[in-house]
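To illustrate the input format used throughout this study, we show a single complete record. The first block contains the structure-token representation of the backbone; no residue identities are included at this stage. The design step must infer an amino acid for every position from geometry alone.
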């Protein structure tokens, strides 16, 4: 039997599925919430910071935020953020360090200040996903 050299023969759709989370937000400084998952977009992340795209006027420099991270897709729409941490969510706290105002919203850099171990688990998911995809291409080359 001839072995296939075509990358497409060795790749499954699930290996290329986008890793995605829904992020809801509570601004603990202004006591406001964003419960529409389409309003908060993950732009960039690393071990100490996350950059989010947020609606205009949703936060200011130095504001304390709680990020409620859910697997995508969310099973149900949330009208108010829960007081207790549920099994299907992670809650990460941080402080707004930088805001870049754009026409359509804010690119907001948030320094992670608590739940660092939870945050590292989220980062590991993204690193592992990227590594798996990179590994497929390295095999081909």
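Output of the design step:
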């Amino acid at each position: 039997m001839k072995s296939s050299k075509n990358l497409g023969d060795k790749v499954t759709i699930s290996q290329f599925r986008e890793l995605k989370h829904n992020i809801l937000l509570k601004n603990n400084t202004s006591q406001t919430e964003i419960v529409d998952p389409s309003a908060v977009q993950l732009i960039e992340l690393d071990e100490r910071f996350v950059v989010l795209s947020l609606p205009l006027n949703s936060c200011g420099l130095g504001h304390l935020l709680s990020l409620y991270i859910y697997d995508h897709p969310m099973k149900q729409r949330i009208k108010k953020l829960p007081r207790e941490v549920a099994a299907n969510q992670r809650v990460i706290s941080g402080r707004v360090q930088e805001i870049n105002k754009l026409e359509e919203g804010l690119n907001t850099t948030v320094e992670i200040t608590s739940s660092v171990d939870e945050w590292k688990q989220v980062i590991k998911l993204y690193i592992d996903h990227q590594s798996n995809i990179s590994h497929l291409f390295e095999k081909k080359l």
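Structural context for interpreting the output: The radius of gyration is 18 Å. The chain has a mean pLDDT of 80.
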